[in-house]
Amino acid sequence: RENGKRSIEDVECRLKxxxxxxxxxxxxxxxxxxxxxxxxxxxxxxKAEPATINRELSILKRAFSLGSRHDPPLVLHNPPVSKLEExxxxxxFLEKSDYERLLSELPSYLKLALVxxxxxxxxxxxxMSLQWADVNLTAEQPTFLIQADNAKNKxxxxxxxxxxxxx
Length: 167
Fold this sequence. Notes:
Radius of gyration: 22 Å
Distance between the termini: 42 Å
Structural class: mainly alpha
Oligomer: single chain
Number of helices: 6
């Protein structure tokens, strides 16, 4: 919260739904690798994906790290947190023929978002955050700007407008 991270809502949700119900009454001084293994095993039994479990373990690891850096320390030991192997390779790309069919079926107010996302690979939040002030149609090479505040890596970037995007 102090650093203005956008992930705070996700962290609070994971704490409320999973971490606190399973670990809430456990004292940090009594927490170790066996509790981590038990937590992971329980989440696997609930059919949680490894990536989901890893995000939850990251919250736990960060909590111990912050607690140990507090003055005076709120925790005296920082248990090692091992992550699960993730296999979340993206599959199922949108082929040109499917893109064209989808574009013809979409209502007009969604077409521009699809065209920009398809041609640039921008994330939905980046596309939906665009405003006319971010578009330069008068330059020799027309561009649009993804503002740093709306980019995942917090760096702005300029992207060319070409092909279907110009239409």
